[in-house]
Amino acid sequence: MREQGGHVLALLAARFDDVDLADDCVQDALVQAVETWTAQGIPANPPGWLYTVAHNRAVDRLRRAAAAERRLRAAAPQLIPSPLDPDEEREELVVDEREVGDEQLRLMLLCCHPALDRDTQVALTLRLVGGLTTAEIASAYLVPEPTLAQRIVRAKRKIRAAGIPLRVPARLEERVGALLSVLLLIFNEGYLSRGGHADAVRVDLADAAIGLTERTLRLLPGHPEVEGLLALQLYHRARMSGRLDAAGDLVLLERQDRTAWDGALIARANTLLARALDRNVPGPCQVQAFIASLHANAPTAADTDWPAIAHAYTRLAELAPSPVVTLNRAVAIAMADGPRAGLAVLDGAGGLERYHLWHAARAELLARAGEPERAREGFERALRLTSNPAEQRHLRGRIRELSPRT
């Protein structure tokens, strides 16, 4: 239903040129679908059903708004604002939109409008196109859910107030960075759910992100960062089946059965990455894909080239610095040079006190450095900060392993 809702929202937004109206009506339709489909069964054409209900809701709202405006105009015409100047300068648009032909991509490009800041672009697109809940996005952003909700509401109001059209911009390159951030976050939520979802690994989200990235590459053929992102997603998708054991518990990378990884996806990712790197236009997606390639192509965990991975994370920190990149670099350094070297980097990372993986990584390095008590405290802190059931079970297991024997 998530994918169907996103597609219907994009169609309605294009039909009425009003994202806020489309979002509200689709949410109403989804609520009604739960009630009606539970009682009467799923219809033969679920997207068509959702579109019809949401479209009718939108028409009803517009009729009520028009009637209210007529009454107000008759009673107090001075309170009705004048129409916009038809000669007002607008952003240059691509006239022929057949080159895209996908309402969801048009909606994504609208959400990535330069009038919105980068975090808002990503959050709004995840909400409207990716179909992620506010809780899922807030978790991905490491911010409180109310803060994220307010950000999304303000963004939709800004789009409406500015009259930003749902069209394909002539200068697509200006919005590629935000678009790729959106696609990566959607994939990451599928790779390991952070929003408290019952499923730790969500293949539907991961595959949806891959599909949207493939369509983006068709829109921007030969773009090295889009190729890099698609390669990165494919490397991770290739080993998703080995991330959980039969009981649904997480299996760490070093313990995964590499024979179960999808060799065809890895080969396709290798081709994409080589093509992107040959263009000699480095970017963060390509560096991340290169790191993933070193893991995916290593015959065994012992064959992993950790010094190369640590060097790549240093390069990534130059291109796209962030506390999370620092965390991953610290882990790579620990694998290459020992836990104390990694801890020195990790303890210098700021802004991650509420991020459970910072505490988990630090605890793991402390355990390897021979400090089980401090490690156990770190795992306990990480446990309090995560809502993913598989991660919780893994952390409880590490706590038990480090607890004194009685």
UniProtKB/TrEMBL annotation:
Coiled-coil stretches noted in the UniProt entry, renumbered to this chain: none
InterPro entries: DUF6596 (IPR046531), RNA_pol_sigma-70_dom (IPR014284), RNA_pol_sigma70_r2 (IPR007627), RNA_pol_sigma70_r4_t2 (IPR013249), RNA_pol_sigma_r2 (IPR013325), RNA_pol_sigma_r3/r4-like (IPR013324), WH-like_DNA-bd_sf (IPR036388)
Top-level taxon of the source organism: Bacteria
The keyword Transcription regulation appears for this protein: yes
Any single biological process term in GO: DNA-templated transcription initiation
GO molecular function: DNA binding; sigma factor activity
Sorted UniProt keywords: Sigma factor, Transcription, Transcription regulation
Residues in DUF6596 domain copies: 175-276
Residues in RNA polymerase sigma-70 region domain copies: 7-66
SUPFAM superfamilies listed in its UniProt record: Sigma2 domain of RNA polymerase sigma factors, Sigma3 and sigma4 domains of RNA polymerase sigma factors
Domain RNA polymerase sigma factor 70 region 4 type residue range list: 107-159
Family under the similarity heading: Belongs to the sigma-70 factor family. ECF subfamily.
NCBIfam families: sigma70-ECF
Protein name according to UniProt: RNA polymerase
